[in-house]
Every structure is written in structure tokens, then in C-alpha cells.
């Protein structure tokens, strides 16, 4: 039995790693000139979850007798997991780069335009763009697999050859069409299967019943597992440098424009732990609003109270406060503890797994 693939979360994210959702926050504050809130930890999570689920399915298949109903059930479950992963990854990349929605233009040119129902609650929460993204991706899922994977690789700027898609694409189509036959025609070959499959066809004889046994299921799910792993490697290669501290540096530069306020002088930047620590130093000559936000940043790491929390000091910065409150509320950093002997740690590179 293979061990799960693990994401190398820094200790500062242990409170939030499993449900990090900065992409949705980013979309709610696009009216501000905020930096993208992308992290590799959020970006790769759908693929890592899918990979681990596939390993469990394959382990289960390899350890049980060749039972027809179990094989069919696990086969359908695996394909559904794969499709869900692709959808979730596309939604993630579009949340952080909504301008990429333009790449989906014309995808539905052969369909009638469909209206998008948006609730009052979604309008009030600023979730309209997120709703558009989810609706666009869900609609795209009904297009051809060829079209879907082309757009997927384009959105992530991945060369299809790096995923070996040209070599396995016809097999992927056959696997998907077998799943469709299983769900809709009891595995009996019809014209739709013959027409939609490409070079790989298990039958060209209408009326013949296909078999989904352990061998076929293992072969199909192993092929998809290898593809998911290749996707993880490409995502980590392209987005692995988007960790917590680089994000915080961008947020700090966004929050403070004054040249007298420097992140590295305000606190201790810990590259090993991917976080900022104390002790904290508030520069002289700061304005009342700058003082408020510096205390805010300090409070996220040591829990100290804000000395002058009156909103009058913020002027036009109240929306910035709302934005930062949501971001830090999502990150949920543990408190920094002062130590006479600094802790020495070495993080494992994000490409490693156990």
C-alpha cells in the first residue's frame, strides 16, 4: 500500500491548511488594488486529495476478489473524482486570475446563451464573480473532453506534452465513454460510443456488451492516477514559490506605502518557517492610521490589543481593514512565542512527499 501524497504545510498554517479559501476573498475585493492571494497550498489541494483517493481505490481493487459490482462502482467513483478535481482546479486558477475567464469565450458558441441566476445574498456578499466562474466551469464540463483538457492546460500554462496527453488522450476518451455506457446503456455499445471514441475503441459492433472487470478498472484508474501526479508536479513547478511569507510581503507593501515602514524592520521574517515573527518595532513618524494597521499586524502574531482602535483614525481605509481581517481570519496564524534560543527548523521542499 502506497503512502498518501502530502502537502508540505508550514506550521503557521496548521489551523487553516485543510480549508484555505483565499481565492473567494480575493474576488470579493477586486475593487481594491490588492495583490493576488494565491498560495501553492490552496492551489494544489484538489489534485492532492484526488491522488490520495485514487491510491485508496487502487489499493482496494488490488486486495479484493474480481467482483463485478465492486469494480463498476469503484470505476464510476474514480472517474467522478477525476472530473471533480479538474473542475475544482479550474475554479481555483480562475479565482486568482479571473481575467483568464476570457479564455473560455466562444466555448459555448454552439449553445443558446444561458442566464445566470444570482441571489440577493450572493450580491451582498460580493460573490457574483465567483458564481460566474463556477457556472462557466460547470458548463464547460459538458463539452468534449478534448476541449476541456485543452482549456485546462491553457489556463494553467502547462504544455500538454508534460502531462503526456498526446499519448494517453485516446485512452482517456475511451474510459470516459465506457463510464457513460455503464451509466446510460448498461455497457451495451451504441453509435454514440463508436462515434465519440477515437483510435482506442473496445468494440465497433453496436449491441455488444463491454466488460468492466478488475483488470480494466485497474488499468484505467492507474492511467488517470499517473496523469493526476503529473498535474501535481506541473502545478508545484509553476506555483510552488507562492508560499505564505511572499504573500505577506506583498500584503504588507500594499497596506503600507510610506518609505519609513519596512516589513523587515517592523518584525523578524522567518524564511524557514514561512512567516513573520516578533519582536516588533513600530517606527517613529508614523501616522495614526499606520499605527493602527501596524498594531493590527502585530496582534495577528502575538495577540496584543489595539491601543487606539477608533475607526476615526482609518479615514478611507475601512475597506482595507475589512479585507485584511478576512485574509488573516482565513490564515488563522498561531501566536508567536518569544524564545531566548531561536528555533532552528528546515522545511522540506514542497516537491517531496512521504
General description of the model:
The protein has 354 residues and is an all-alpha fold. It has two domains: 38-239, no CATH class; 244-331, no CATH class. The chain is built from 13 helices and two strands; from the N terminus they run αααααααααααββαα. It has helices at residues 22-28, 40-62, 68-96, 120-124, 128-140, 145-155, 165-185, 191-196, 214-239, 244-255, 263-266, 288-302, 318-331; strands at residues 268-270, 275-277. A two-stranded antiparallel ribbon has the order 1-2. A hairpin with a 4-residue loop joins strand 1 (268-270) and strand 2 (275-277). Residues 108-113 and 340-354 have low confidence and may be disordered.
The residue-averaged pLDDT reads: 88
- Derived from helix and strand composition plus strand pairing, the structural class reads mainly alpha
**Contiguous helical run count:** 13
Q: How large is the radius of gyration?
A: 25 Å
Structural domain count: 2
Order of strands in the sheet with most strands: 1-2
Proportion in β-strands: under 5%
Number of strands: 2
**What letter string, H or E per element, gives the SSE order?**
HHHHHHHHHHHEEHH
Stretches where pLDDT is under 50 for at least 5 consecutive residues are 108-113, 340-354
The largest sheet is:
2 strands, antiparallel
* Approximate helicity band: 40-55%
Please tell me what the overall shape is: elongated
Report how far the terminal alpha carbons are from each other.
12 Å
Protein name: RiboL-PSP-HEPN domain-containing protein
Amino acid at each position: 500500500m502506497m503512502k498518501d501524497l502530502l502537502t508540505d504545510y508550514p506550521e503557521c498554517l496548521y489551523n487553516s491548511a485543510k480549508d484555505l479559501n483565499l481565492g473567494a476573498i480575493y474576488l470579493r475585493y477586486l475593487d481594491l488594488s490588492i495583490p493576488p492571494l494565491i498560495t501553492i497550498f490552496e492551489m494544489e489541494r484538489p489534485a492532492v486529495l484526488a491522488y490520495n483517493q485514487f491510491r485508496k481505490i487502487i489499493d482496494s481493487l488490488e486486495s479484493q476478489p474480481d467482483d463485478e459490482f465492486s469494480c463498476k462502482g469503484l470505476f464510476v467513483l474514480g472517474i467522478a473524482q477525476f472530473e471533480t478535481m479538474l473542475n475544482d482546479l479550474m475554479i481555483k486558477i480562475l479565482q486568482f486570475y479571473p481575467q483568464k475567464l476570457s479564455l473560455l469565450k466562444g466555448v459555448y458558441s454552439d449553445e443558446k446563451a444561458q442566464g445566470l441566476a444570482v441571489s440577493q445574498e450572493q450580491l451582498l456578499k460580493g460573490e457574483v464573480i465567483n458564481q460566474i466562474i463556477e457556472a462557466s466551469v460547470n458548463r464547460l464540463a459538458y463539452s468534449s473532453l478534448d476541449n476541456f483538457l485543452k482549456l485546462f492546460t491553457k489556463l494553467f500554462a502547462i504544455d500538454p506534452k508534460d502531462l503526456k496527453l498526446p499519448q494517453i488522450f485516446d485512452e482517456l476518451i475511451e474510459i470516459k465513454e465506457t463510464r457513460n455506457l455503464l451509466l446510460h446503456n448498461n455497457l451495451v455499445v451504441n453509435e454514440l460510443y463508436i462515434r465519440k471514441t477515437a483510435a482506442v475503441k473496445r468494440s465497433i459492433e453496436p449491441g455488444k456488451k463491454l466488460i468492466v472487470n478488475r483488470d480494466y478498472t485497474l488499468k484505467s484508474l492507474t492511467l488517470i492516477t499517473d496523469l493526476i501526479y503529473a498535474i501535481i508536479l506541473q502545478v508545484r513547478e509553476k506555483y510552488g514559490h507562492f508560499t505564505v511569507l511572499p504573500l505577506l510581503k506583498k500584503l504588507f507593501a500594499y497596506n503600507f506605502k510610506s518609505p519609513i515602514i519596512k516589513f523587515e524592520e517592523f518584525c523578524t521574517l522567518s524564511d524557514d518557517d514561512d512567516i513573520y515573527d516578533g519582536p516588533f518595532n513600530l517606527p517613529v513618524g508614523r501616522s495614526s492610521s499606520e499605527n493602527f494597521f501596524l498594531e493590527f499586524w502585530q496582534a495577528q502574531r502575538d495577540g496584543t490589543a489595539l491601543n487606539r482602535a477608533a475607526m476615526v483614525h482609518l479615514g478611507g481605509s475601512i475597506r482595507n481593514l475589512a479585507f485584511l481581517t478576512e485574509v488573516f481570519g482565513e490564515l488563522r496564524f498561531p501566536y508567536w512565542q518569544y524564545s531566548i534560543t531561536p528555533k532552528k527548523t528546515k522545511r522540506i521542499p514542497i516537491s517531496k512527499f512521504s
